[in-house]
Amino acid sequence: MTTPRVGTAAALAALTLLTATACSGGGAASEDMHVWMYQDTLVVVQEGAVERFNEDQGADGTTAVIDQVPGDNYVERLRTAMGSAQKPDVFFNWGAGSIAPYAEQGLLEPLDDHLAQNPELAEAFLPSVLESGKVDGVQYGIPLRGTQPVVLFYNRAVFDEVGAEPPQTWDDLLSLVDEFTEADVTPFALAGADPWTEQMWLQYLVDRIGGPEVFARIAGGDSEGWRDPAILQAAETVADLVDRGAFGDSYASVSYTEGGASTLLSEGRAAMHLMGSWEYSTHLDQAPEFAENDLGYVTFPPLPDGAGDPANIVGNPTNYFSVTAEGPHLEHALEFLAYTAQDEYVADMVANGEVPTTTGAEDVLADSPDPEFAVFQYELVRDAPHFQLSWDQALTPEIATPMVTEIEALFNGQSTPEEFVDAVAAL
Questions:
Q1: Signal sequence: where (predicted)?
Q2: Closest listed residue to residue 145, CA positions, set 3, 284, 25, 327
């Protein structure tokens, strides 16, 4: 997966144990409170929070330190550390499925009592985002980064050339597929070489057709939820899009990590691209003139007679901090969580191009590198009745990994919609 959608890479157990122990230092033997962060350019925001926390603690207080863990095997190293005496006191994660195994083992501190005692912290975040930090209805995660909804991006110049408007309904979208195909433009860029990108289509289709309850049943552990009629209809819709040529004929070899799909859009060889909001930053970096002049964005359209609210969104609500249970710095770790809601923290996020998940963030978005897009994202999340976490993050890796493989097979025509349903129901 790409940097915005951090994933796993296998590592030798002995090596991960050695590196995790070396970089953590957490646990009973450490005098410092260790905060594990996924290593990237945005960690500067969390570094600022740690500096303020340490200043507030004074000379005799607990000192927090950030351990930056390389992302290519962050999940494996965290798993190793959580099974040892060297657990981090606070750690970065993706909420829901990514922390469910630790919650089930009693390794995480439930945060409901803490939030009840500190209601200003609970009220500081958008409800739809805070919800994805829960496991079985219990709060284990506090938002720490910006929100990343999946957005339908489009090339304004290409639309102008054919005299088209961005889709507001599913019929509009199907008409555009035909219109752009006739104009020899691929209707939708799709990075099929990285099949997590295809998952976004199914997520929106299932939600628009059946509502959030369909996947909630699956995420709750009921594999028969995959046999809900909305799943089959979504799979049939995917097959129909493929047959119509919505993604062209070479999407299976297009890479997202190498910039292939984004380039198709910016160069006008594709008209639209369904992708996470980080796509805007990608274009701003790789094709700034296009990003500033011709990059448009709209929400995913509703489907006829669909049960899902058209205001629902999918993607990554945010990343979260969770606290290790019974750690030597538990009290201070809980205190540290409040720093992600402070004005200084939010201002640092905005300055680094992130869209905060705190309530009332509209006041600071004017300082964003692109206020218009920042406000669009924020209002999308703020007004969403439901924000579905990416399926491969909401489910445990044992189910998520083969699920993505089955999605790839569906998009590549290697399985029928009926075979897809049977395959995922058997996971």
A1: 1-22
A2: 3
Residue 174 half-sphere exposure toward CB, CA atoms < 13 A: 12
Q: How confident is the model at residue 344 (pLDDT cuts 50, 70, 90)?
A: very high
Q: State which amino acid sits at residue 264.
A: L
User: What are residue 132's DSSP bridge partners?
Assistant: none
Look up residue 275 and give its amino acid: M
Bridge partners of residue 149, in order along the sequence: 315
Whose tokens are 């959608």? That residue is 5
Residues 6+ apart with CB under 8 A from 279: 151, 153, 262, 273
Q: How far apart are CA 145 and CA 271, in angstroms?
A: 30
Residue 4, pLDDT above cutoff 60: no
How many Cα neighbours within 13 Å face the side chain of 135?
A: 28
Give the model's confidence band at 30: pLDDT under 50 very low, under 70 low, under 90 confident, else very high.
Answer: low
* 39-58 per-residue burial string, b: 16 or more CB within 10 A, e: under 16: beebbebbebbbebbbeebe
- Tally of CA atoms within 13 A in the half-sphere of 281 that contains its CB: 16
**Position 148: which residue type?**
Q
pTM of the model: 0.81
Using DSSP's 3-state secondary structure scheme, residue 212 falls into: coil
pLDDT at 353: 81
What are the helix (H) ranges across 59-143? 74-82, 100-104, 112-117, 119-122, 127-131
Coil, strand, or helix at residue 173?
A: helix
Domains of the chain: 3-145+318-369 (3.40.190.10), 148-315+396-425 (3.40.190.10)
What whole-number distance in Å separates Cα of residue 97 and Cα of residue 79? 13
How open is the CA angle 90-134-100, to the nearest 5 degrees? Answer: 70
CA distance linking residue 306 with residue 209, whole number of Å: 4
Question: Smallest Cα–Cα separation from 277: which of 353, 346, 340?
Answer: 353
Residues 6+ apart with CB under 8 A from 209: 230, 233, 234, 237, 303, 306, 307, 308
Distance CA 336, CA 53 (A): 7
- Give helix 417-425 / helix 229-244 axis angle, nearest 10°: 140
